[in-house]
Structure formats: structure tokens, C-alpha cells
């Protein structure tokens, strides 16, 4: 059976979640909104429009959502030339590719942001395809990003495993009918990942790589 290993990117393969938190917090502050950083952290992984709606609610002026997203993008863009891959990220993708898995990225990032993330991972030769925010109408926790990744790989849900670091990732994977693996390197607690659908949880890509034989990707 054809197999696909589908990966979220931010917080899963590249250590960017707290950079996103800082950029969103500053974007909200500049617009006059006081949003605690811990609340922003919990929302990271949602598409920009959904994150704003989730944190500010129905009382906000939705006509200003675009300004907030643009401010976050500009603030976060300052880090593009130095985004740090998480330990073992590139090595994990290369190992899975060598073992016969099709490696597909499923991320809310697109354009120059996605290019910067891929440069950080430095494993382009192992990546079969990418399902980015530019390719789907709904982001996680909708199943659409994962389903699109499976379409690109030509793999059925039962032949796929989705690896992510947020509750939104686990919910998207479960809704797409795939097995889910959670990583703690994005800062979300193990219990939250398991409750959202993670079958197994590891510290980071290096830990998953070292435990590969006994993991859902073994």
C-alpha cells in the first residue's frame, strides 16, 4: 500500500510558534487590543482570519481583520532569514522518504513564508508535495488541508499518518480519517493533544526519529 507521512510545519518541524505569538501579540497591541500571550499561543495553528475571530470574538470590527493579519505578517516576516528548524526535523523527513513514505507538508503558511520554512527544514529532496494555505478554502481544524495532502500523494486515509503539534492539527487529522501523532515542541500539553486525537506523542522530531520503529510511522 502507498503510504503518506503528512506533516504540519510551524511548531512541528520549525521552532516558530513563539515567534508567531510575539508577532500576533504586537499586532493586536498596535490595534488597541489587549490579548494575553497564553491565549494567542493556544490559537496558533489556526488560519489568520480564524485566529482573529477566535481571539476577538463577534464584538470586533471584522472590517479590520485584514489589517491585523497584515501587521502580523509584516512583524513575523522579520524572522524569515533565521527561522530555526527543530532538532531532527530534516533528518526525520529524509529517513521517512528513504523508507518509502511519501512526505507531504500540510500548512497554513504560503508564499514567501512557506519558502522560508522549507529553507529552514533543508530537506526538499524528501518532500513529495505541499498542501499550503493557497490551495484550500478552509484551514485546520477542518479536514481539508489533510485531505488535500492525501490527494497530492494519491494515498487513502488508512495509509497515512499526520504529525502535528496543536489541537487543531489533531482534530484535522482525525476528521480526515488518518492516524495522528502529536509533538510537544509546539508547547501544547500532552493531555490536550491526546484528547484531540493523538495516538502517540513525542517530544520533538528527533525523539520521533529515535522512536520510529515503535511509532505509528514504523
TrEMBL record:
Keyword terms, alphabetized: Hydrolase
Signal peptide segment: none
GO MF term list: hydrolase activity
InterPro entries given in the database record: HAD-like_hydrolase_sf (IPR050155), HAD-like_sf (IPR036412), HAD-SF_hydro_IA (IPR006439), HAD_sf (IPR023214), PGP-like_dom2 (IPR023198)
Gene3D superfamilies with a match to the protein in the record: HAD superfamily/HAD-like, Putative phosphatase, domain 2
Keyword Hydrolase: yes
Superkingdom of origin: Bacteria
Name of the protein: HAD family hydrolase
Lineage, uppermost ranks: Bacteria, Bacillati, Actinomycetota, Actinomycetes, Kitasatosporales
